[in-house]
Structure to design on (224 residues):
């Protein structure tokens, strides 16, 4: 049982480059989330989805886009990376609203 | 500003000591969760509290939800090195947005 899988695990980008982070879950969960974690800031919600084909903005959505074309996948895109987006990104999923969140192991992104 | 404030930010104690960490807000939440995160991994759910005044116990961990549902505490009795980690509280905003917001976390180190 894989749970929540994030790819890649590590990535280094130059300012202005683009990339997509992939999150896949095999638990048939409706809700999926993207968070970023910075030192002393806890986890901040970027975007989330309450079902296939739906997305919504979280606390810090600027500079990111997301898509949920399939129920099991939630993609996070950076169109033009900036050093301020250097962070650890976590994807999570849950069965329904405020069910326990199941997290992936994170993607460490560095933007130089 | 952080919607959920956690204190203390850091705590270093000797094995066998007791400790309490706090999660406070000026907002009222429908329910609150506590997670523990270890280095290189995503957070893992410890408990969910729903009712004001509710107390839940998980072995040596005791969780309490404030009567007004604005605050929560986590008490650990006789801490062990295995309790070391980042403790995060998370709460659902009562604005029908389904946003699950995390606090900044308390980093606990239990020395043998």
């Amino acid at each position: 049982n894989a749970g929540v899988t994030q790819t890649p695990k590590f990535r280094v980008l130059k300012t202005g480059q683009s990339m997509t982070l992939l999150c896949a879950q095999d638990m048939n969960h409706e809700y999926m989330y993207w968070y970023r974690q910075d030192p002393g800031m806890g986890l901040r919600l970027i975007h989330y989805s309450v079902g296939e084909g739906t997305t919504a903005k979280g606390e810090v959505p600027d500079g990111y886009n997301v898509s949920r074309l399939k129920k099991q996948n939630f993609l996070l895109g950076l169109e033009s990376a900036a050093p301020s987006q250097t962070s650890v990104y976590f994807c999570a999923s849950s069965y329904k609203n405020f069910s326990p969140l199941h997290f992936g192991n994170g993607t460490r992104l560095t933007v130089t | 500003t952080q919607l959920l404030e956690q204190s203390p930010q850091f705590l270093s104690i000797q094995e066998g000591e007791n400790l309490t960490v706090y999660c406070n807000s000026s907002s009222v939440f429908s329910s609150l969760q506590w997670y523990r995160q270890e280095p290189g991994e995503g957070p893992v759910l410890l408990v969910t509290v729903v009712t004001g005044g509710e107390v839940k116990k998980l072995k040596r961990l005791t969780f309490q939800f404030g009567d007004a549902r604005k605050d929560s505490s986590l008490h650990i009795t006789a801490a062990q090195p295995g309790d070391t980690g980042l403790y995060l509280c998370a709460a659902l905003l009562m604005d029908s947005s389904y946003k699950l917001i995390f606090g900044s976390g308390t980093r606990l180190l239990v020395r043998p």
The interface with chain A takes residues 2, 4, 6, 9, 30-31, 33, 35, 40-45, 48, 88, 90, 92, 97-105 of chain B (CB under 8 Å). Chain B has a mean pLDDT of 91.
